[in-house]
Amino acid sequence: MTDRWRIRLKVNGKEYEREIETRLNLADFLRHELLLTGTHVGCEHGVCGACTVLVDGQSLRSCLMLAVQAAGKEIATVEGLGDPENLHPLQAAFREHHGLQCGYCTPGMLMTLVEFLRDHPDPDEAEVREAISGNLCRCTGYQGIVDAALAAAASLRENPLKG
């Protein structure tokens, strides 16, 4: 039995191949092996949602998934959403509606909402609140996040190619 494993996966559209320890979780792989530090690690128990990424389009807690389980899969992190000159509509809405304060929960919130808005393009406030109920925020009181999600949903319905 070996304690190292060679994996190949795609992260934010780019192919990577690495030899890693079998016990390395996906969050630590993203942060330490690929230097994609937007994925935050909060509780390390899958409770807070700060480490949420998309794996083959589905939101998952990267602190609970081993990196070897991601072999052959496509991972999307917050770094893949947009950049300062070309923000994703959800990122722009977070800025406009004060959807973040300290920013620690923001990457997980964004990735959770990317999947949610893709699957629910015209949500109401209660649906947004339910969608983010697994992501903890200690700063905002959530109203700015909900307002941002609703604004982003409207923007994406008007211009679906931006998402």
Outline the structure in words:
The chain is α+β, with helices and mostly antiparallel strands. It has 2 domains: 4-80, Ubiquitin-like (UB roll); 89-158, [2Fe-2S]-binding domain (DNA polymerase, domain 1). The protein is 33% helix and 17% strand. It has helices at residues 26-33, 89-96, 106-119, 125-131, 143-158; strands spanning 4-11, 14-21, 52-55, 58-61, 74-76. A 5-stranded mixed sheet has the order 2-1-5-3-4, with helices on both faces. β3 and β4 (58-61) form a beta hairpin. α2 (89-96) crosses α5. The chain is globular, with a radius of gyration of 16 Å. The relative contact order is 0.15. The model has no long low-confidence stretch (mean pLDDT 95).
Q: Briefly, what is this?
A:
The chain has about 160 residues and is an alpha+beta fold.
Shape: globular
Strand percentage: 15-25%
Q: What is the CA–CA distance across the termini?
A: 43 Å
CATH architecture of the largest domain: Roll
User: Spatial order of the strands in the main sheet?
Assistant: 2-1-5-3-4
CATH class of the largest domain: Alpha Beta
Mean pLDDT: 95
**How many alpha or pi helices?**
5
Can you tell me the CATH superfamily of the largest domain? Beta-grasp domain
The H/E string reads: EEHEEEHHHH
Structural class: alpha+beta
Major β-sheet profile: 5 strands, mixed
Name the helicity range: 25-40%
Number of strands: 5
Counting structural domains, the number is: 2
Computed over alpha carbons, the radius of gyration is 16 Å
Instruction: Fill in the CATH topology of the largest domain.
Output: Ubiquitin-like (UB roll)
